[in-house]
């Protein structure tokens, strides 16, 4: 007897729900990617966390507008079955700072990320002079309301410690970053009321490590540093997963 495609999909949804319900951890983990990439960059971290028994959900934020990305994140938070540890990489830190105000979110994890205060945007934070010996993102001039990283410099700037075959593809597969997302300031600042954790990437050539340390200090975050490029979830997935789990189990 043939099953319709709708019956098959319904079965898959039920199986997925059962798998989620079977997780033995008291929190869910929601992963929010940054600019120029999509949620697939979390795969290695996802596999580790899911294998350790966590319900893990991944946001595919469009990176066109901050409000749109916060809305996309809130939809995923709503789908989580348990209180949420909200994780943001890079520009994803802007998103989790605002979306983290959601009462379902219990703590925040920033990975090589922006952690803004009220009325700050990526654009305003990027106006600070880059410290000597550090590098800022090699962005091309805006075009049609979007930003891209110079493809010729993307592999070394974004992920110098990741296989060149991977980063060369990432350079040509970039997701354009909307100027509206870059220029919009945050209104809500979740790190002022919720525990925060920050992983500083010491070899970062997109967000200078000095900036990251300042964000971490200002937010009162539990902080670790790692010898990594900006794409720490790709180059050090085990360390990233362990850091997220330490936030998930923190008292």
Automatic annotation (TrEMBL):
The keyword Phosphoprotein does not apply. GO terms for molecular function: hydrolase activity. Keywords: Hydrolase, Signal. Residues 1-21 form the signal peptide. Residues 29-242 form the AB hydrolase-1 domain. PANTHER family: AB HYDROLASE-1 DOMAIN-CONTAINING PROTEIN-RELATED (PTHR37017), ESTERASE_LIPASE_THIOESTERASE DOMAIN-CONTAINING PROTEIN (PTHR37017:SF11). This is Alpha/beta hydrolase.
């Amino acid at each position: 007897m043939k099953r319709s495609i709708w019956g098959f999909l319904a079965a898959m949804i039920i199986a997925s729900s059962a798998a989620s319900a079977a997780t033995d951890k008291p929190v869910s983990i929601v992963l929010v990617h940054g600019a120029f990439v999509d949620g697939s960059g979390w795969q290695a971290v996802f596999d580790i966390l899911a294998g350790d028994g966590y319900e893990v959900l991944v946001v595919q934020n469009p990176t066109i507008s901050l409000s749109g990305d916060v809305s996309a994140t809130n939809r995923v938070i709503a789908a989580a079955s348990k209180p949420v540890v909200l994780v943001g990489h890079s520009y994803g830190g802007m998103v989790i700072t605002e979306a983290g105000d959601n009462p379902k979110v219990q703590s925040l994890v920033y990975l090589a990320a922006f952690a803004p205060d009220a009325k700050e945007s990526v654009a305003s934070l990027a106006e600070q002079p880059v410290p000597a010996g550090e590098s800022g993102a090699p962005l091309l001039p805006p075009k049609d309301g979007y930003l891209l990283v110079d493809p010729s410099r993307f592999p070394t700037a974004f992920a110098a410690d990741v296989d060149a075959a991977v980063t060369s593809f990432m350079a040509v597969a970039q997701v354009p970053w909307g100027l509206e997302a870059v220029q919009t300031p945050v209104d809500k600042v979740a790190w002022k009321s919720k525990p925060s954790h920050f992983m500083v990437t010491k070899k970062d050539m997109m967000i200078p490590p000095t900036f990251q340390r300042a964000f971490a200090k200002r937010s009162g975050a539990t902080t670790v540093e790692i010898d990594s490029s900006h794409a720490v979830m790709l180059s050090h997935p085990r360390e990233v997963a362990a850091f997220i789990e330490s936030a998930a189990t923190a008292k």
